[in-house]
Design a protein that fits this description.
About 25% of the residues lie in helices and about 20% in strands. It is of the alpha/beta class and about 220 residues long. The chain has one domain: Rossmann fold (3-Layer(aba) Sandwich). A 7-stranded mixed beta sheet has the order 3-2-1-4-5-7-6, sandwiched between helices.
Length: about 220
């Protein structure tokens, strides 16, 4: 219930001023119907998706996309994606599935316009010490996770590519934290099990890095 009332955290990083502009937006890892979710919140944006396969992406999602790049980032290239084109790039919980993630960041930096922004989110080093739970609370709960990335190395790689890091650290979605005391009895009342995502923010499961490409 609450999941459908709360916007994904990465979409809360953008302002009402952003919403009014027809920005070119690239979602790297665009599954779980994120095209429709994003366009509902930011209808003026030109939504482009990139993924290696259709993960909960249906015809309705494809209908709202301005473009769709089918790329396996572990083995393929970003050649089909135009350089200097995107105002915003988001890659949320994709990096940890890639051994070559830092090289991918180099490529994505080239896709940003001057002044463009990139938001990256990934499991934190803290997640290695968390208990296992359905939906991934401990890093190795997901067998497709292949590498733990840290804020420092991600930030350093972006800065080496000429970007300026504007904010970074533990992801804390305070609205979800405030609502957690309501979520727990609600799920108990309905006899529904808890999922790891219910506890991501209170445990510090994920980190993020937000960076901007200079205008000059």
């Amino acid at each position: 219930m609450f999941r459908h009332l709360i916007a994904p955290f990465h979409l809360t990083r953008f302002s009402a001023a952003d919403a009014a502009r027809p920005l070119n937006y690239l979602d790297v890892g665009c599954g779980n119907h994120m095209p429709q979710v994003t366009k509902k919140k930011f209808p003026a944006w030109n939504y482009y998706g990139l993924d290696r396969a259709d993960y909960n992406v249906d015809d309705a999602d494809k209908a709202v996309m301005a473009g769709y790049y089918r790329v396996d980032l572990a083995t393929g290239t970003l050649d089909a994606v135009p350089d200097g084109f995107f105002d915003i790039i988001v890659m949320s919980h994709v990096l940890e599935h890639l051994r070559n993630g830092l090289d991918v960041l180099d490529g994505l930096a080239r896709k940003l316009k001057p002044g463009g922004r990139i938001y990256l989110e990934f499991p934190s080093e803290r997640s290695l010490g968390l208990p296992s739970m359905k939906g991934t609370l401990q890093f190795c709960d997901d067998e497709t996770h292949v590498r733990v990335y840290g804020v420092r190395e991600v930030a350093n790689r972006l800065m080496a590519g000429g970007l300026t890091v504007t904010k970074a650290g533990a992801r804390r979605y305070w609205l979800r934290i405030v609502l957690l005391p309501l979520v727990v009895p609600f799920k108990l009342l309905l006899g529904r099990g808890f999922e790891a995502g219910d506890f991501w923010d209170v445990t510090g499961f994920a980190d993020y890095v937000f960076a901007r490409k200079p205008l000059a």
